[in-house]
Amino acid sequence: MKLFTRKSLKWLFTPIATFLLLTLLMNSCIQFRMSKTEIDSFFKDKKIKGIQKDYFIGKRKLNYLVAGDSTKPLIVFVHGSPGSLSAFIDFMADTALLAKAQLITLDRPGFGASNFGYAEPSLHNQAMLLKPILESRKNNRPIILVGHSLGGPLIARMAMDYPNLIDGLILVAPSIDPELEPHEWFRAPMATPFLKWLLPRSLRASNDEIYKLKPELEEMIPLWKNIHASTIVIQGTKDSLVDPGNADFAEKMLVNAPLKIERVEGMDHFVPWSNPELIRNAAIELLNNYTLNSSH
Questions:
Q1: Core-most of 30, 202, 255, 268, by most CB within 10 Å?
Q2: Which residues pair with residue 63 across a beta bridge?
């Protein structure tokens, strides 16, 4: 007796084949990154040229893009989740910033060309993996870090762990208060071994780190007092992805850092694209303040 006829097998496998095809298409489309060709094309008509570099720590590859004079101060841009160095690529051709600093935008672990799809949920470990970028330029002061969304708690962790390497922080719509992290029921099943491998790689990496973010932020609570770097927080009041109350948390926790909070009425979460001038102005302010304080 045949358990499956040819017709029934067709009905069985068609949905599976369709699902696998959709998964494949999503993997190719939902990447949140630019190819090397696309990056080269971006700089084609620019006066400045961006150079892609990478290094390895164990099996981890870290990819970044650098532009500008290597003898000047350093600004490093750190993207959110999901994302890649492309989130800040427009800043890499910003003449006002390039006049004052060398610029770097990087692929965090699990994104872009940094082991795409394989996240590192530990903020402490991410900070350690990114440390060589700062260490190799430790004489180019000031060193200023810009972190958007999940990039915010990461640069805060870097300032906690490596205070001697960081002079300024710009926290842009940062997810830093563990009590304000949303409870999203779908993150746990999406992190299970079966379901996670059905996700596009960018979303898999994103879910793996966001799912573990709250305990990571809780671990950081006693360390906020270790931050002494001058800090500017930029937060929109209409941010639907990161609670605007995160700016209040920064105000409460950054007790030993010169701090400025910019709450922008009506602004959403996507500040690097909708309001890039706020980030540019904050970076120039920190650069100028450092120069002014150093001359005294």
A1: 202
A2: 54
Distance CA 279, CA 91 (A): 9
Higher pLDDT, 200 or 128: 128
- For residue 20, pLDDT over 70 is answered with no
Q: pLDDT class for 89, splitting at 50, 70, 90?
A: very high
CB 220 within 8 A of CB 153: yes
> Residue 260: what are its φ and ψ, rounded to 5°?
-135, 130
Distances (CA, A) of 28 to 25, 35, 88, 89, 291: 5, 12, 22, 21, 46
231 C-beta neighbours (distance < 10 Å), count: 23
**In three state form, how does the secondary structure of 212-240 look?**
CHHHHHHHHHHHHHHCCCEEEEEEECCCC
Q: Is the pLDDT of residue 291 over 60?
A: yes
Residue 167: the pLDDT is 98
Dist CA 291 CA 296 (whole Å): 9
* Structure token pair of residue 172: 């842009």
Residue that is written with structure tokens 């926290």 in the block? 171
Beta-bridge partners for 55: 62
Pick from 73, 71, 102: nearest CA to 290: 73
The beta strands (E) that lie in the chain are given as 51-57, 60-67, 74-78, 102-106, 143-148, 168-172, 230-236, 259-264
Least confident segment among 181-185, 209-213, 224-228: 181-185
DSSP string, 38-89: HHHHHHTTSSS--EEEEEEETTEEEEEEEES-TTS-EEEEE--SS--GGGGG
Asked if residue 118 has pLDDT above 80, the reply is yes
Question: What type of residue sits at position 245?
Answer: G
